[in-house]
Amino acid sequence: MIVAIDGPAGAGKGTLAKSLAAHLGYPHLDTGALYRATALAVLRAGGDPDDPAAAERAARSLDTAILDSPDLRSAEVGAASSKVAAIPAVRAALLDFQRNFAHRPPGAVLDGRDVGTVVVPEAEAKLFVTASAAVRAQRRHQELQERGEASIYARVLADIEARDARDAGRADAPMRKADDAVEIDTSDLSPSDVFKRALAVIEAAG
Ligand code: C5P
C-alpha cells in the first residue's frame, strides 16, 4: 500500500509520516528533503535558487550524502527550496526517484505537497494534514530555538505565509488537497491523536 501525506510546512506531516512508516514497517520518503537538498546544492555552489538552469543541474546531479546535512533544515534553505520547487524542470528531475520509491514492495509512506495529486495519484491512502498558520509558525519557531538558531516569531510567520503562497500558487504541481484525500487539521490535536486518526483512514483504505 502507498500512503501519501501532503500539507503545508509545519503541519506535522513529517512526524506523522515517520510514525506511520514505523508502525506499518514501510520505508518513508520526505520528498521535501529532495527540494531542500537541491536548494542547498545551488546555494553552496554560489548560485541563485530562482535560476532554472542552476536549479535543474543541481536536481539532476543530487548527491544523496547532502540529504543528511543538518543545513537542510535551516530557514534559509527552507525559503530557497520553495523557489527551486516552482521550476518545472526541477520537479521533473525528481519525479522518477519518488515514483520508484513509492512502488517498491511492500509499500511506502511519502510526505510532501503533491504526493497524492502528482507523484502517486494512485496511492490507496491519502491524507492532507493542515494547521493554522499561527500554530505552524509557533511550532517552527520553537523547533528553530531548540536547535539554537536565532528565531523571531513574526519573521517565521511571514516566511511560512510566503512559502504557503508560493507552494499553493505555482503553476506546476501546486500544493493542493487531492479530491480523495482525508483532511486532518492538527491545530488542536496531539501527535498521538493525529496518528490515531490517520491510522483509521489507512485501515479503512486497506
Ligand atoms: O516539507 P518541506 O518544508 O521540507 O518542503 C520544502 C519545500 O519543498 C516546500 O516549501 C515546497 O516548496 C517543496 N516541496 C514540493 N513538493 C513536495 C515536497 C516539498 O514542492 N512534494
Structure overview:
This protein is 54% helix and 11% strand. The chain contains 9 helices and 5 strands; from the N terminus they run E-H-E-H-H-H-H-E-H-E-H-H-E-H. The chain is globular and about 50 Å long. The chain starts with a strand and ends with a helix. The mean pLDDT is 96. The structure holds cytidine-5'-monophosphate. Cytidine-5'-monophosphate (C5P) binds at residues 9, 31-32, 35-36, 78, 81-82, 85, 112-115, 163, 167. Cytidine-5'-monophosphate binds next to helix 2, helix 4 and helix 8.
Keywords:
206 residues; 5-stranded parallel sheet; alpha/beta; 5 strands; kinase; binds cytidine-5'-monophosphate
Task: Reconstruct the topology from this structure.
Elements: E1 2-6, H1 13-24, E2 28-30, H2 31-44, H3 52-60, H4 75-84, H5 88-103, E3 108-112, H6 115-119, E4 125-130, H7 133-146, H8 153-169, E5 182-185, H9 191-205
Parallel strand pairs: 1-3, 1-4, 2-3, 4-5
Helix pairs in contact: 1-9, 2-3, 2-4, 2-5, 3-5, 4-8, 7-8
Cytidine-5'-monophosphate binds at residues 9, 31-32, 35-36, 78, 81-82, 85, 112-115, 163, 167.
